Amino acid sequence: MRILYHQWLSPFCRKIRLILAEKDLAFELKEERVWDRRSDFLAMNPACQVPVLVDDEAPNETAVLADSTVIAEYLEEVYPQRLLIMGSPVERAEIRRLSAWFDGKFDEEVTRNLVGEKLMKRLLGLGGPSSEAIRAGLSNIHYHLDYIGYLCERRTWLGGDHLSLADLAAAAHLSCIDYIGNVPWDEHGDAKEWYARVKSRPSFRPLLADRMAGSAPPAHYADLDF
Amino acid sequence: MRILYHQWLSPFCRKIRLILAEKDLAFELKEERVWDRRSDFLAMNPACQVPVLVDDEAPNETAVLADSTVIAEYLEEVYPQRLLIMGSPVERAEIRRLSAWFDGKFDEEVTRNLVGEKLMKRLLGLGGPSSEAIRAGLSNIHYHLDYIGYLCERRTWLGGDHLSLADLAAAAHLSCIDYIGNVPWDEHGDAKEWYARVKSRPSFRPLLADRMAGSAPPAHYADLDF
Ligand SMILES: N[C@@H](CCC(=O)N[C@@H](CS)C(=O)NCC(=O)O)C(=O)O
Ligand SMILES: N[C@@H](CCC(=O)N[C@@H](CS)C(=O)NCC(=O)O)C(=O)O
């Protein structure tokens, strides 16, 4: 059975969970306390980060894969039955650009400032959240939601005509922030409509059932009609 | 003619310059002062970062591409004559993992602390360098050079049997740090031997000729026999 080493509120891990589910690939989740720096885990990923995927159902060899962008490209190459980076090289570049936007800029400007400060710091015993960081995150999220709205006015899905890695990367981040109730959906109708479409996919259901010990999500988190 | 919008000491831009040269694709460099936030540049890349590649020699359409990882994948798809991400899906994943290692971890732990503090801050008028950041960068670089040495003991090139994107990504970062004279080559013989091999490639020559106004590199920077 494939194993995904993960953390519950890691957007990078959630992206891989969504990809695996969209491609209909069975897998088992193992929570990895990265901060313990387990030597067996370090041997799999010297960067000591989740996600790490162990794919023992690959055609030729058991594959041990680290880094969510790398894992996404690997899954696309080995399991192309259901494509998530599709189209011409230019169309594929656009899907990858948007995925990198959410995993890079959005992560730095929003996710780390909100999920990082409010949840991860507590989990890691790194002290209280910085109110300055939280303020920045709450402010930055608006222009990213506007950008999603802008894209949705022009396209069916973020990256083009089809649901793609771009939607999964974006929704993975937003789902983490939604878990702590910090997405101002009501001020961003277009982004909300897009998120409702992603959220209603079967691949999303397991994420909506996630519950972290000690912090329950708001009622609308799992509601498809939020 | 292809145009690469770039900054001289950006490791991400240098990586693309190396890829283009290895693939023997002609291009013109245009320096982009990203901090001016030019509206025509923002239209090409809303993230307002270099590198951006305009490929008007692509088979079907002029392509405007942002983000160095995205550009690397695009070039690999459109110009596969000389591959830089080669082999089985697992071998390709290893090359991508190492590229992500240098563009992610190395960048955060070393490049930003050294090139960012010493050169970019001055360029952007952001005040003096933080001595704490510089100390961290000078300390962190050792374990990364050890990692390069570890890989070279086991493989011909960082990612496997062939020169690949992994070598170009790593060398692009190290070349920026070498420009400011902060790579302790003499303490890391294996890494030095590997860098000498990359440095002697024709694709590397243009980088060794770079000179930033107001800061000359040390004498060994352009010396193949350093
Ligand atoms: N570039 C990596 C980033 C992964 C990442 O940042 N993972 C976090 C959890 S969200 C982690 O494991 N952090 C532990 C650490 O960096 O020590 C990817 O895309 O997989
Ligand atoms: N993930 C991007 C990072 C590019 C990047 O950080 N570029 C820097 C120069 S080294 C830049 O343009 N910074 C300007 C800014 O972020 O505003 C890539 O791989 O291309």
From TrEMBL, chains A, B:
Domain GST C-terminal: 88-221
Any Pfam family hit: GST_N_2
An example Gene Ontology molecular-function term: glutathione transferase activity
CDD domains: GST_N_family
InterPro entries: Glutathione-S-Trfase_C-like, Glutathione-S-Trfase_C_sf, Glutathione_S-Trfase, Glutathione_S-Trfase_N, GST_C, Thioredoxin-like_sf
All residue ranges annotated as the GST N-terminal domain in the record: 1-83
Any GO BP: glutathione metabolic process
Domain of life, per lineage: Bacteria
Coiled coil: none
Keywords per UniProt: Transferase
Summary of subunit composition and partner proteins: Homodimer.
Record protein name field: Glutathione S-transferase
Origin species: Oceanibaculum pacificum
